[in-house]
Each structure stands twice: as C-alpha cells, then as structure tokens.
Amino acid sequence: MSRPPASTEARLLRRATWRLGLQVGLSVAAIVVLLSGLAVLMVLRSQQTGVATLLQQAASQADDVQDPPAGVWLAIQGPGGLTATPGAPAVLPDRAALANVAKTGTAQTDEVRGERAGYEVYTEQRGTQTVQAALDLRANNDERERLLAAMLFSGGVGLLLAVGAGVWFGRRAVAPLATALGMQRRFVADASHELRTPLTLLSTRVQVLRRHLRRGDSRERLTAEIDGVVADAGHLTDILEDLLLAADVRADGLTATLDLVELAARAAAAGTPAAAERSIVIEARPTVPTLLVRGTQGGLLRAVTALVDNAVTHARSAVTITTKQTGTTGVVEVSDDGPGIDPAVLPGLFERFSSARPESSPRRHYGLGLALVSEIADRHGGHITAGSNPGGGALLTLTLPLAGRDSRASPG
Prior knowledge:
By secondary structure, the protein is α+β, with helices and mostly antiparallel strands.
C-alpha cells in the first residue's frame, strides 16, 4: 500500500531538514577544528617561547646553583669542577650537552626524558664556565592537556548545538516550501473535488442541448437549455474564482484600506438578482458611515458575498446585512429567516467541503464558500462565527480589526 502524498511530503521535508542541520553542524565542526588547531598551535608556540626565555634568563643570571627560579635546576661546570642544584632529577645535569658546549662554545637546547617527566635543557658558555638550566615540563604539559580537553568538550557541545540550530533553521527554511507544497496539494484536491459535479452537469446539459438541436425542438425549449448552460458556466466560474482566491498567496499582503460598509452594499447588490428569483429581499443596514479595514478588496468582497450567498440559499423571505463597530473591530453580520443551523453541523461548518444546506434547496452548494470565508478572515487577522437569531434563522458574523485611524472612531 503506497503512502499518501502528504505523508511522503512530510517525510521528505523532515529528511531535508535533518540533512541541512547535519551539513550546518559539520561545517561548524570543521570551522571549530580549524580554529582549535590554530589556538593550540599558538599556545604551543607561546609555551616554547616562554620556556626558552625563562631558561636563557636563568642561565645568564646564575651566580651559583643554590637559588634557581621555581621549577628550574642549574648546573655550572668550571675550572673547579661541576656543581648542580641539590635534589635535581637523576637525568640532570645533561653532561653530554655540557661537554659539547664547552668544546664548541655554541649554546644549545635539548629535551631530556626522565622517568616521570620531560625536561627542557638550555646550555651556554659564559667565560670559563659552562652553565646549564633545566625546566620541568609537566606543568606545561598539564596545561596543554587541559586546553585540549576543554576544546574537545566545547567542540562536542558546539557540534550538538550547531546541529540543533541547523535543524531549527532548516525547519524555518523549508517552512515556506512546505506551505507551498501544502497549498499546491490542497488546490489540486479542491479543484478535483469542486469541479467534478459542475463539469458533469455542464456536460449533461450540452448533450441534452445537442439532442434537442438534432430533433429540431422549439426555440423556447432550446432557449431554456441554453440558459441552463449559461447558469452552469456561471457557477463553474464562481467555483474557479473561489479556488484561485484560496490559493492566492498574495492575499497575505494587506496593503489597501477598504470600507466594510461599501463592501456590504456591493455584496447586497450582487446577490439581489438571485434573491429576487426566490422572492427574497436583501437589506443592507449600516450603523456607521464607514468601517475602514486593511486588506485585499477581492478577498474581502468575496468573503462577504459568500456569506450573503449562503444566507440567500437558506432564507425564506429576507436576508439582512448589518455593519457596525465594536471596540477596535469592524463587524459584518449576515442573518436570514431560514431554518437556522443544525447544532450537529455547527462544529464543522467552516471546514472544507462541509455543507449545511437543506436537501430541498434548489440552489447547488459545493461546500467551499464558508471555509473560504474563514481562511480569508484568518489572513486579515479576524475571525468568523456562526449562531442563530433569537427569532429563528442563521446569523454569521465576520469580525475584522479596523485600520488605525478608524479604530479611534466612536460607533455611530
């Protein structure tokens, strides 16, 4: 059994996220290793320079072997023989180095290994004496090991943090891709679901019309069938507009200042012809002169129109559109005198492809309108709610934040 597309996409996106995180982590690890290597190299060179300076100073300033600097042992060989600092390790002094410097007169530096430690030995000729200074390297070696351990620990922690940060940034980076893929998949699903029925009906009407033409039926009958084709084509256009609006990412850019009172009036005018066919009266009742909001004209007009269309579908005789201000929000209430909303369908009323229309309704309803209104409201920072009128019928309320200057106005 194959995985559903959504599951496959989620798996691929997770894999891309972890791959990006590992790449970032490895890149950071390489940089940390390089910087750590440079730091260790600088520390080693600093230690070597410090040791050499200390030993040279100790050898050049030594008058005797009794009071050397801490950690240093001295040895002086002269005409009177060889003297060394008491308590010196067994490998000190380095007699071979003393003999070689006394013979050549050239200073030299050597490293001597003992049972427990290594020693840096510096020997120079000073007049008739050959002076040797030796330093225990255990303190330097311990410092170097502590530095390496700290770098390994910090490098490991840094690698984990880098991988975690890479995964986090990877998720942020692929989030737009996931949104785009989800939108694409949703559009395809919506299109296949929404267009199947109207296209089938349109094809059926065209076939019937062709049969009437072949039989030479009356002009009146042909005109009725053509009117049906035109009506079905209009419904198909409306559905396509809904689908494209739902998939339009540009609707997120709320750049225009719009008047909800004007949009409600336009929606009422657009729904009047269809309402008149069913003897339904649409009335717009503004309670304030203007209600300015930020948004996209096509999206908000489509949302209010969808609410009006839904009310006309279920109304018996009247639909009322009320626009008002509540605090810093603009409100559009669309009510009808129909049978109201069944509490059983209320929780899923704004989900895609749900429908609350009665079976006896002559108006086709494809289940996308109210879900689209909910999505548009979310994009504009608002929300939509559904309820019932006290005297019966449904009440759908669209609430949107007002534009800055209008939010300071008082309700009329």
